[in-house]
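Hi V.,

You were right to ask for the full record rather than a summary. Here it is.
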Amino acid sequence: AHCVGTKYEDGKEAGNIGISSVSSTYYAVKDQIRFNAEAENFSQDRFYKVPISLVINEQKSAYGFFEINAYKRVTKNLFYTILRKADYSGYVKLDIEDGILSDNVYFVKIDPKEKKKVLCVDGDMKLSQFLSETFYLRLAFSPDKKSDSEIISSVCIPDEIEWKNIDDFDVIFLCNVNELSLTSKERLKEYVKKGGNLVFFLGDKVIKSRYDTFSEELFPASIVQEIEVPETADISSINSNHKLFKSIDIEGIKNATFRKFYYVVPKEDSLVLANFKNNMPMLIEKNFKYTKYG
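Predicted structure:
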């Protein structure tokens, strides 16, 4: 509640403005929060260059100025870049002395959603994104462009793995990748050992002889041959108890059909999560020092 119409001892009206509300919007791509502070003028005075600041964990993190006419409201945006997996609290403050000081402070708490960062390595990049290997995968991560997705996806070509900071990503998807350089293979092996998740999606660019050189730390199966079915190949079984499928429509997945696939044999200690009707593996997972890759 705000007090209006306050006066000083000499009877003169005490000008008063206060912060009536503060909302926030989280921008996942930048790990940034925008605070929308609404200030309201409860007096007949006009205020010029009113200083406003954002204090997070006892540190002044952003500041600005605004003007406000008599009996009006204005909104001032203040931005704060957060660190992941951290707790924050603070307040927005008007740095002025007016008729009432208590409504010059509005306390806030930052509780951003944990975002997953994934890297989609495109093995057949096209000029049109609609024809690229990673288009539908990225669309699945963020189907609604108007809302903020919980998954932040980036795209690169295979050669970029040699120098890119891949440790920033929770999951790396290799989509129809033909070949990896020796440096890229070693970097991906280290990424997996440190807790990263590596996923292979095979395609028409895959060459069996090259994948035969991948160690089991990278690729959890051996490719036997590419199979093209006369009609379609359907999924017959899915390990519905696996956490990967806990929030997925199992029946919807079983309705998917395939006209071509690779016959692969799981390597030692690998787990088959789904099979085609011909009992050939459709999805394989392997654990490696508390890390999953498949």
